[in-house]
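the two lines:
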Amino acid sequence: MEAIVAAAIGVLVATGVYLVLRPRLFSVLLGITLLSYAVNLFLLAAGGLMVDAAPLTDRPGPYPDPLPQALVLTAIVISFGMTALVIVLALRSVSERGHDRIDDEEERAP
Amino acid sequence: MNPLILLPVLLPLAGGLLALLAGRGRPGVERLVSVATVLLLLPVSAALLREASGGVIQSYAVGDWPAPFGIVLVLDHLAAWMLLVTAVIGSGALLFGLGRSDKAGRHFHTLFQFQLLGINGAFLTGDLFNLFVFFEVLLIASYALLAHGSRPERTRAAIRVAVLNLLGSTLFLVAVGCLYAAAGTLNFADLAERGASLPADRLGLWQAGAWLLVAVFALKAALLPLGFWLPGSYGVADGAVAALFSVLTKVGVVALIRAGTLMFPDLEVGPVLWVAALGTLALGATGMLAARHLSTLAAHAVILSVGMLLVSVASFSRDGLAAAVFYLAHGTLATAALFLIAGRVALVRGETGDALVAGPAFRGRVSLPAAFMVAAVAVAGLPPLGGFVAKLAILDAAARLDGAAWTWTLVLAASLLSIFALARAGTTIFWKVGLDRGELVEIPRWRPLAVTGISLVLAAVVLLALFAGPAFRQSQDIAGQLLDRQAYMDAVLGARRGGGG
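prediction for all of em together
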């Protein structure tokens, strides 16, 4: 279980970092989304991984730590909002400047 | 529990929502709500500072869930100090922006209030995850405020800042995960308590999380090498917005102070911060000299002030922290005033804007050049204003430490360069007259408000100099309280101990 989650986080981070370093905002946005998935998995793993155990039940038995799950929930909502905002900025960039490249230098204020 | 602690967070939240709902299509109502809210924040913050200066740390457990299980807001002296500074700058900036900044696009007031909500929350929170949430609140408002006014260079700046801070937030969450995995808590006081007695196999995780967190705070504070995003974004923002932004970097500085004094005193953050801060000082001073717009110059002045602050913070000594806390108030107010003046200059000079070239003559106009003079003296740290006292205290505190020669050289050289830069900017804008001299332009109706806004911030700078004695004693109290970790832990976790034992 640990190995699968660790590998998933690793692949997500690697792909995310590659995309973030691309010159267009669209790829950067995809990269940030992947990175935020990786972070959510990481937060979940921070509380210790458990298979087949619900955090809040009446059943006896081992419970996983519910706090990281609450953190992940909040982080998902926040990253959702942030992604929406960056999409709006990207659209505005396209409508104002005609492209969404973020490595252009020609518009630097004189 | 003192519910007054909640007000700096609740007031802007209520004001922002009310401005959004009641102000729809009625700019007058929107403005009234917004101004009333920031002006209410002034007495509230002053009352909180009065309470906090008694030296007792107050903790408010939201929903009455005791720490470390629930969320706490903690009012210590430093938080109250920064709340008052934020309230003054918020009022000045909002008055300045009335009738101009808020006409450039919709929902300016709501965004402004949410920005204040995020800043105040970040100062008050006693919990790492809530610090993250308040950071996100202030950031999301800041992206929208930065892009406010539909200009391509603003959209561009907002995109850059947004992408960079999204990556910063990702790292923040990784740090939160590491620290939670190592210590099993995210409450500042609880982290401080458990950090001291961690089993050896968790120490690596703990240190990795702590250093990541320091890096994230350094990014927010625009510390070298993580500060290159600042001039390009603050320099193009609207004057009122940029003035409020000058508090944002200080949120990072305050977080760094808390990390170094409360959460990770064993981490040896000081030397690393010191080297980075010296570089930041040099970068800020050089940037001020190289700037070609008054607003860019002010943005580099923010970088310089962060360097100055952290050079002093890095010692984590009582004297160094006291000097830094005093400079925290002075430097933030001074750079905010400079941003407002830059915005005003850009407005009245019409097409020339705030570029540092000869433009229309300022003949017969005394108030704006005089305001610039006061702000420049404050930013450069010359007597008789408070910046001089602060720098003297910074140098005095550094004199007894290793590396004093470096600190003294760079602080003094940076000050000298900033004087050159400000003097040159002032003479170019206010004394030189361009060949194709246009006329100064003005929208007379809103002028008194802009003047009030600038005057409010400058008056605070002057008051800080007039009452430098009491203010400096407060700074020393704050430094003493910051170094007394046990008091903070007792104040936050005391209820649990009382109940359990």
